[in-house]
UniProtKB/TrEMBL annotation, chain A:
<dbReference type="InterPro" id="IPR035906">
    <property type="entry name" value="MetI-like_sf"/>
</dbReference>
<keyword id="KW-0813">Transport</keyword>
<feature type="transmembrane region" description="Helical">
    <location>
        <begin position="212"/>
        <end position="239"/>
    </location>
</feature>
<dbReference type="Pfam" id="PF00528">
    <property type="entry name" value="BPD_transp_1"/>
</dbReference>
<keyword id="KW-1133">Transmembrane helix</keyword>
<keyword id="KW-1003">Cell membrane</keyword>
<keyword id="KW-0812">Transmembrane</keyword>
<feature type="transmembrane region" description="Helical">
    <location>
        <begin position="400"/>
        <end position="421"/>
    </location>
</feature>
<feature type="transmembrane region" description="Helical">
    <location>
        <begin position="354"/>
        <end position="373"/>
    </location>
</feature>
TrEMBL record, chain B:
<keyword id="KW-0732">Signal</keyword>
<dbReference type="Pfam" id="PF13416">
    <property type="entry name" value="SBP_bac_8"/>
</dbReference>
<dbReference type="InterPro" id="IPR006059">
    <property type="entry name" value="SBP"/>
</dbReference>
<protein>
    <submittedName>
        <fullName>Putative spermidine/putrescine transport system substrate-binding protein</fullName>
    </submittedName>
</protein>
<feature type="signal peptide">
    <location>
        <begin position="1"/>
        <end position="25"/>
    </location>
</feature>
Amino acid sequence: MADATAGDGIAPEENRSASGLLLSADGTPLKNSIARAERRARIRAFLLILPLLAFVMVSFIAPIADMLFRSVENDIVADTLPRTVVELQDWDPASGVPGEPVFEAFYADMLDATEAKIHTRLGSRLNYEESGMSSLFRKTNARRLGRIDDTQPLAPQFEKIDEDWATVEPWAILKTFSARYTPGYFLQAADMKLTPEGVESVDETQQIYIKLFWRTIILSLTITCSCLLLGYPVAWLLANLPMKSANILMILVLLPFWTSLLVRTSAWKVLLQEQGVINDILVWIGLVNDGARLVLINNQIGTVIAMTHILLPFMILPLYSVMKTIPPSYLRAAKSMGANDWVAFWRVYFPQSIPGIGAGAILVFILAIGYYITPELVGGTSGTFISNRIAFHISTSLNWGLAAALGSLLLILVMGLYWLYDKIVGIDNVKLG
Amino acid sequence: MRLTNLLGGTALAMTAAAAAGAISAQELPACEGCADSMTIVSWGGAYSNSQAKAYHEPYQELTGIEIVNDESSAEAVAKLRAMDEAGNVTWDLVDVVASDAMRLCDEGLAMEIDADADLAAAPDGTTASEDFGDLLVSECFIPQIVYSTTFGYRTDVAEWGGKTPDDICDVFDLEAFPGKRSLEKRPINNMEWALLCDGVAKEDVYDVLETDEGQAQALAKLATIKDSVVWWSAGAETPQLLADGEVVMGSTYNGRLFALIEEQKQPVAMLWDAQVFDLDGWIIPAGLPDDRKARVMHYLNFATDTQRLADQAAYISYGPARKSSAPLVGKHAELGIEMAPHMPTDPENSKNTFLYNYEWWADYRDDMDAKFQSWLLN
């Protein structure tokens, strides 16, 4: 820039240095002082957002990263049984039960582990891979290990503690999961499993996650569509009614927002159940036979109805704020030039409301895909989402690794869909107002 | 585990009044170097209320300390693990079911207890370990109550033509007892009941369930009623479903059904057949600082003695875990009805009971759950 401006004669002669650079009032090159001022402004801007950034990092990004890291982390085996893991490296499951050196290392490791009382924790971890590991490790406790005579061969003595130690399976599991990082959780999340022989797909009777991912996507799309169908006319009304009635309508839209989520969900239970209000009315007016009441809850219908209601404001509000900016004169202009109502709407009004549809649809879809409490309460077995399984593994089965893997997959899925949306619709084409 | 040991004692004399055992401040040993407040975690609702009435309030009156109640027992295992990882355990005493206590013990999150050293002996001098007997299922667990998971049914179902279910297998009999049933949305108990009603002998249930064929058999039996089942995940759901007439029979905890029948006077009766006994009790989080630990041990010694456990039964229909408490169980504190016939351990109710195998479920829980949930999806 200095070269470009040096010879154009804009700056007065005395503000030039010997080399022809522009100088500021204090004699430093103008380029430097502009850069300094800009740097100061940048630092000030950064300092202004620093508290928020720090807050987000500490309370949001770091915990999520930590949680996601658990999906591959597997320190527990190598930390609890360090010597055994080393000995098992050269052992081949096909060659039968490992030899005495492995048992010696295992005995030494287990003495330490039982003293620190962490052997049962390892058992719980390995039980996720193979049923029975939990009690095997619980049985191999300090009391029983104390009875072992380490001058005699150890293998038969371990067999006495539990005959499973004389089989290949527990050792093969230990070897398979001895690495500090494992793909095991991600494989499980994709209905596969890591076995000593390699990656296998799990038995058909245990496949669940792929199905749940699909169901989550399809139901979330259904919910998004029904929110759009119901929300679009309401938003249009809101944007086009006189102020006074629009305000009342707006309160009606916002009212559910101010009611507890649990209350709203429970209200749907009362309405939708077989002996509930809706069925009672249908039977009373004779539309439905008393013996054949509609099953509206504890299935996908229940989930779609309740979640559509709960997420509807997230569709209406962005739509409304976009529609508010579309001048009504455009429609009148279209009609004055001979368009009928439908053409005027479809060719003139609708294209202008697309940014609102995009914003609303993304909001509703992303909220729906991670929803948990409503599907749990009204979804029965066919209307639950992948998030219900994540919650189950966090709070009930304590398999946090698998929960983290499922959560990571869900995150990747959402980002993938976002990318797809950007390709098809374009993310610039989204407007919140 | 032989929970049946309890039955004799409970049967003997549940008539003695519960009021006899008020303790005076002099009898309660002073607590040296103890924290002056403690956080107790429990299930909330009627159950927490019964604990407050029987344990917390008398203890606070005697010591003047503050007790903070937290109703997080349902997520206790996960929360304790998270607290432990964060290195900041804020709970002092946690009420959990026995299987969770075992898991917390396995994970090193609960403190081991020496029953005889830490807990009060029975009034007649019987040691605590003998008084609790087989109910001390884990080294970290101090049992409070015996509860059971059993069925309730509506007594006004016209389609049943006057018949009432009296056998667990009536749950699987859609011809004689049409209508919806509610079952818990997890394999525990359901798998056992299914096998029992598919001709498996009671003592063989877990051996059969250990095999793939046995699991398939149990699921196939459940499949015969799958279309008529509403699956619940919270204990309060079945009572509500029964009261609304949404289901004609359903499984839940016996105390919930007691409240539905006796307090809310709904047309519901207990099935009791093949009820599954389970235990609920205390665990102490591992690694408490000394002053808080001293306070908890002091409280526990008081709150799990013979009289206090018997007192709790005046507020809720769960059987006390000490043998010596059984003769002291009296009337319901508000309803004034005898509690004995409503206890799961009452001989009339426990003619046919099923003993839940903790060890087995600790091993097979993950595997069975995957299969069960996958079965539910299909």
